[in-house]
């Protein structure tokens, strides 16, 4: 249970305070007021379900406050009175059920490393070392070949050694080719970057559209389900197009009544509809609340907690004690 707002009441001598509890509340403190009348004892009394109890007794200059921990639930008829000459102040808070919701997510490290390697952002150390070793070996082999050629030229006095493949390229041709190759490489890289950027934008747009669709769907579902502070849930299955049911109207209903286990304990699906006067207490309180505002042809699902149905006693043998009831209802007639 969670705290949901302040509750308070001043109980004056020779007056009674009676109410049927609509929302659960808890009394935590009883105190004498600032203005005292006499030094005699004043007792705080409460009547619940036609049974009288004394919660505490307070005496000026001796015991002017008393801590309490008493919770009153929906559907109980409660009456507060005091016996004595002083006013007693009651304070506490309303209480309701909590709801929890959890979400989670994660990332795959191996997939991230593979993506970085593909984009050139992660280098394989072993591959780099192998490449450096191969380059060093190639350079050593070239140096050995040049030394051998020089020795043969000196001993045999043969014509100079022909230039290698690298030397055969004229400087003028090399200088012309380098800018062209560089420009082509830059153009290719630029195209790849633009294509990658375009793909990322498309992916981002798709994710935003999906998120908007999910939010819209969730909003539509929530608009069809109404949760009241008293614990009752009203789900709009179908909105009718006829006259609207209001307090005092005589209405005809089709319905199926079930327990939360799914067991059907009562129904009216054929023959003469079930008629009653709305808002006159002729049915359980959950029906007066849940049917109000429907239009002819409309359908609703009502989840009614025990205090708004048959309470702690139930309706044996079909409805057990403290039972939450589920009704599928349809408004078919209105007089």
UniProtKB/TrEMBL annotation:
Which key words tag this protein in UniProt? Isomerase, Rotamase
Q: Which residue ranges have biased composition labelled Acidic residues?
A: 123-159
This one is known as peptidylprolyl isomerase
Q: What range(s) does the PPIase FKBP-type domain occupy?
A: 248-335
- Keyword Isomerase found: yes
- Gene Ontology MF annotations: peptidyl-prolyl cis-trans isomerase activity
**Region entry Disordered, spans:** 121-227
The EC number(s) given in the record are 5.2.1.8
Q: Which Pfam families match?
A: FKBP_C, NPL
User: Which reactions is this enzyme annotated as catalysing?
Assistant: [protein]-peptidylproline (omega=180) = [protein]-peptidylproline (omega=0)
* Similarity comment text for this entry: Belongs to the FKBP-type PPIase family. FKBP3/4 subfamily.
Q: What is the lineage of its organism?
A: Eukaryota, Fungi, Fungi incertae sedis, Mucoromycota, Mucoromycotina
Which InterPro entries does this one have?
NPL, PPIase_dom_sf, PPIase_FKBP_dom, PPIase_Fpr3/Fpr4-like
One cellular component term from this protein's GO annotations in UniProt: nucleolus
Family annotation (PANTHER family): 39 KDA FK506-BINDING NUCLEAR PROTEIN (PTHR43811:SF19), FKBP-TYPE PEPTIDYL-PROLYL CIS-TRANS ISOMERASE FKPA (PTHR43811)
Q: Where is the composition biased (Basic and acidic residues)?
A: 170-225
